[in-house]
Amino acid sequence: MTVSMAQLRDKYLRHDKKFPHVWCPGCGIGIVLGSLIRAIDRLDLAKDDIVLASGIGCSGRLPVYVDLNTVHTTHGRALTFATGVKLARPELTVITVMGDGDATAIGGNHFIHAARRNLDLTAIIINNQIYGMTGGQYSPATPYGAYATTAGYGHVEHAFSIAELAVAAGASFVARGTVYHAAQLDGLIKKAVEKTGFSVVEVMSNCHVQFGRRNGMPDPVSMLNWFKDRAVPVGTAADLSPGELDGKFSIGVLADVDKPNFHEEYRKIQERAGAFRET
Amino acid sequence: MKNAKGPVRLLQGNEAMVEGALMAGCRFFAGYPITPASEISELMSQRLPALGGTFIQMEDEIASMGAVVGASLAGVKAMTATSGPGFSLMQENIGFAAMTEVPCVVVDVMRGGMSTGLPTSPGQGDVMQARWGTHGDHPVIVLAASSVRDSFTITIQAFNLAEKYRVPVILLSDEIVAHTRESLVLPSVHEVEVVNRIKPTSPPDWYKPYEDNSRGVPPMAAFGDGYRHHVTGLVHDTHGFPTERPDEVKAFINRQFRKITHGAAEIQMTRRLLLDDAEVAVVAYGSVSRAVHRAVLRARENGIKAGLLQLITLFPFPKKAVDAVLRQCRSVLVPELNIGQISREVKRVNLTAKVVKYNRIDGLGITPDEIYGELMKL
Fold first, then answer.
1. Shortest CB distance from A81 goes to which of B50, B69, B239?
2. CATH for B8-191, among 1.10.10.10, 3.40.50.970, 3.40.50.300, 3.60.20.10?
3. Could you tell me where the DSSP H helices lie in A19-128?
4. How many domains does the structure of chain A reveal?
5. Beta strand spans in chain A (E)
6. pLDDT at residue A38 in the model
7. % of chain A at pLDDT higher than 70
8. Which site among B230, B237, B241 would you substitute to test the A interface, given the most A Cβ atoms closer than 10 Å to its Cβ?
9. Of the candidates B366, B16, B317, the residue with the CA atom closest to the CA atom of residue B173
10. In chain A, which residues have their Cβ closer than 8 Å to the Cβ of B222?
């Protein structure tokens, strides 16, 4: 059954929160929010049973608009709070939303350890390749040679491939999508939330104001076209040479493995130690 | 609780803190290894699973503190334990806990020195960090344990105060208290007063998570209780949504301090020894107060009218109790394992009183003999 956008809006957005939102016109984060809401709706989860945690930055403002249990934590630390929530109340579905700087610079350590630990959390990383809220400084995802307010002569560092980093760190489910491929993104987020274990969805998103403007793409459409031209489906990417993949990125599911997750394993420890025993 | 009849246990301070925490209802612990606090993590990892609780060793102290706040947001009493270097890393999320009024207990087993310092030596250099370590004006309660018995009872009080006032409570121990073994009779759980946070009873649609009331402490719903609400480190209105309206900001910040001021009589705990007729007194806390105790008894044997005011609560600073001593005694000694962090607070209470510092910062504890010698000079 198709649910209309108005129905989703009425069901999932907070009416008592004073709009407008903080994002610039045309920002990709709104598309990610739409995908997240559609994914949650398709999963038929009760709103009371979902916790949405974020860090700091433009992405960090996302939860305040959504009618769930929401927490806007400190910079880079969303996964640490999410870890506490999930372990305290494992029956809750816990989703984090982070930015690229949030998740892989200041929160990089928490990110790789959350992946290694394999607690049942979902991490949505909105990668706009820049620190948007603070004014366009380079992030760990800013491409080599790109311009930023702290890289006026061109960026000399190399970017993380965030999804690949998550695979290497041991996440159970890893996918990459873009805000151009919104229909696909709905499905990727749904799969990630459904998956038991640590799941990551990296979303390439446009910050035309702080990134695009300094890199020849000053409007949303040129940035969406950039994603369209550079995204290669995972299956196709496998057949391409490194040279052919230069400057491109794969989209789709990069990893989907089953392995013991922290909560289930810890539950066994509790049982062995004598918890839940009738006395 | 004083006449508890149970088996006598030989415990170190760190172990007694675990027993106290579990009896207070702590069911979540996140930590990172550090000397001289690691035994707390180790024992928690052994004890919590059987109680249906959770222990997790995080990737650092920042993460530990985040996980503790997360667990408490989900309704479970939570604690972490560390020492100076880790305490520095925790400050960010201690501020978040204060801002969002999330009850939690943070143990700092103080060691010597700044930076990596003296990892296996005692110190009391984190006192001001415990009060002001995280940025911005914020409410916090700081308690100090001086013995194995204290480590048990004050840990319970730390949880009770955290739950009652919705604040992070910093529980200071030090290397001497942490590793000294003493006998302790553990009471049964029925003999101990355990306070739990007040939950909302209103319909969820009416719930305002940060609405003021007479105590200044709003009821707290846990995630998953059906009271969907927003929690943020930004200054927020009564609904929990970010605000920059000066009137709302002012009301919010003022309430944070009012709730502590209202509870001051209960929060500010001190212990008086032979003070009723004292002419000279010592104000001390933590392991140092143990040495003072003996020195005061010896001074009394030698005809000196000495007394001890032991501070259990360091912040909010127990001004009234200190002021009474300052008014009564001709001089007051404040011995500390730092360069004089609490002596300045004592002095601030009454600028005309004679307050004498005695400090060690060489990694050694202060002995009864040293205190006795200083008492002779007063």
1. B69
2. 3.40.50.970
3. 29-43, 78-88, 100-101, 108-117
4. 1
5. 50-54, 69-72, 93-99, 122-127, 173-178, 199-204, 231-233, 249-256
6. 97
7. 99
8. B230
9. B16
10. 89
